[in-house]
Design goal:
Layout lengths: L1 E5 L4 H12 L3 E6 L5 E2 L2 E5 L5 H11 L3 E4 L6 H6 L1 H22 L2 E7 L21 H14 L4 E6 L2 E2 L9 H10 L4 E4 L3 E2 L2 E2 H12 L5 E5 L5 E2 H11 L7 E4 L19 H6 L8 H6 L5
Parallel strand pairs: 1-2, 1-5, 2-4, 5-6, 6-7, 7-12, 8-11, 9-14
Antiparallel strand pairs: 3-4, 10-13
Helix pairs in contact: 1-7, 2-4, 4-5
Bound molecules: NADP nicotinamide-adenine-dinucleotide phosphate (NAP).
């Protein structure tokens, strides 16, 4: 496939690029501002909110498939600048969707578990999405434009974990590095997700990009765990002192926005469309990861 990957310079993008190249696809790796190479491919900076730059880049790369992972992905950044958050996460997605719809190209959009309000566990694709974080509201607002693309897929991805391959530390690197240097780390015991490691998420998304699955699909792990459980198990799997992994509650912290308590995803549809795929648990995923 001839693929444009937006967000190729990001955390998930680095893993997606590796998976796409490994599968023999021809990839144009778009970044926002980052320059240089990833996996031997030159990054192409394309400001997604710049209509003319976006259209010119699409015209020259002429992708059969767009995997759209570019976004302002930090909830706090979107809260601080919701206008910019909307321009990137909603406006740019709409333009990409229009381009794909007009030419019958495939579009795979990485949405998020944070489109749900977190009031109960195990959210299904057809459950009402009622985001309570501004970041979740922007991702949710982008979904209809992708669903209007005849070959569009909204992949709602769970919390991702694993070591960064994009040259910039993520939450997981920072936490594990701190534990490695003996600093205690505190995680919520009352915020639940169905986390998935980056490499598995990338493998699933690349497989889906080459499929004819459309609509909304939940992509996550099968275990529902708290952030505390995730990081305690990760620390143990990586041989770090689990006594340094401490627990607190969301109620102990003054948060700028309320955080959804439980956005665990029901992934039965994914199991139906790809029955052979068995997501690794936290220990299995980290055993094969580079930083272990
Ligand atoms: N990580 C997770 O746990 C998770 C969970 C669910 C869904 N997702 C979704 O997965 C996708 C990737 O997340 P991530 O964690 O990999 O994010 P990330 O590390 O923050 O990467 C974001 C990417 O988007 C690019 N970007 C940002 N603003 C842009 C703009 N205006 N124009 C062009 N490119 C722009 C960045 O480019 P530069 O850095 O080069 O500027 C970077 O490549 C996002 O859509 C996110 O919503 C992530």
């Amino acid at each position: 496939m001839r693929v444009v990957l937006t967000g190729a310079s990001g955390q998930l993008g680095a893993y997606l690029l590796e998976a796409l190249i490994g599968a023999g696809h021809e990839v144009s790796a778009w970044s926002g501002r980052a320059v240089g190479e990833r996996c031997g491919i030159k990054l192409r900076p394309v400001e997604l909110t710049d209509k003319r730059a976006l259209e010119a880049a699409l015209a020259s790369d002429d992708p059969e498939v767009v995997i759209h992972a570019g976004a302002i992905s930090a909830a706090e950044a979107v809260r601080r600048d919701p206008e910019r958050g909307r321009a990137v996460n909603v406006g740019a997605t709409l333009r990409l969707a229009d381009w794909c719809a007009e030419r019958d190209r495939r579009l795979v959009f990485t949405s998020t578990d944070l489109v749900f309000d977190g009031s109960r566990p195990w959210w299904r694709e057809d459950d009402p999405a009622n985001p309570i974080l501004e970041y979740g509201r922007t991702k949710r607002a982008a979904e209809p434009s992708v669903l209007a693309v005849p070959r569009g897929l909204v992949a709602r991805v769970s919390l991702l974990y694993g070591f960064s391959r994009c040259g910039r530390d993520g939450f997981f690197d920072r936490a594990i590095n701190a534990l490695r240097s003996g600093e205690p780390q505190v995680f919520f015991n009352d915020e639940f997700r169905t986390p998935l490691d980056y490499a598995s998420a990338a493998a699933v998304l690349v497989n889906l990009a080459g499929s004819d699955v459309t609509g909304v699909l939940h992509v996550g792990g099968r275990e529902r765990v708290s952030r505390y459980d995730l990081m305690r198990r990760a620390a143990a799997a990586l041989g770090h002192n689990t006594d340094l992994v401490r627990t607190n509650s969301r109620a102990d912290v003054v948060l700028p926005e309320p955080r959804p308590a439980d956005v665990s995803l029901d992934t039965s549809r994914l199991a139906q469309v790809w029955p052979e795929w068995e997501p690794p648990n936290i220990e299995q995923a980290l055993r094969t990861s580079r930083g272990a």
